[in-house]
Amino acid sequence: DVKVTQSSRYLVKRTGEKVFLECVQDMDHENMFWYRQDPGLGLRLIYFSYDVKMKEKGDIPEGYSVSREKKERFSLILESASTNQTSMYLCASTFGNYNEQFFGPGTRLTVL
Amino acid sequence: GQSLEQPSEVTAVEGAIVQINCTYQTSGFYGLSWYQQHDGGAPTFLSYNALDGLEETGRFSSFLSRSDSYGYLLLQELQMKDSASYFCAVNTGFQKLVFGTGTRLLVSP
Hints:
Structural class of chain B: mainly beta
Strand content of chain A: over 45%
Largest interface: A-B, 27 and 24 residues
Number of strands of chain A: 11
Oligomer: heterodimer
Helix content of chain B: under 10%
């Protein structure tokens, strides 16, 4: 079974803090994605990566950055957290041109 | 801009059939996917249509008409466990997905 894990299920941070969200997949997938999910807005793509050290902006990259130093790990970084970044963050992975994305359980981030 | 429209909520009873529609307007189109998400859970993949027509997987079927920029998910023999949110998503290229806002399906006894 494909397994995508995320470092925390719940996280509370203060405005201005630097926040790291970690995602690890165990199936040697090339492609990894970070989404945020907000009520009424669905899932929106923040950043994605096709390979180690590669990254591409998604639809809402402002205020975020990413890091992919190893194939299995994709990190989302909030350089200076703001209250409007309070959300559910979902990581996903897939390989090649495979159509199914495999999602992690999500991290619910609250920024106070 | 890019947009996918789906109804916000659909209700049905056990054993019934329900159809969730999705219309899309995107800058690129390689296929339409459907995902299911239970409350508190992760989205899970249901189906993918790259070509026009109907794809059937057990009780679930998905349809695509590229000329109409339209697709739907058909759920048959509804069960209580089908109560969940359903998202359509367009592959705009390189497995990059644009998601709809989701349809909450409530199945009652």
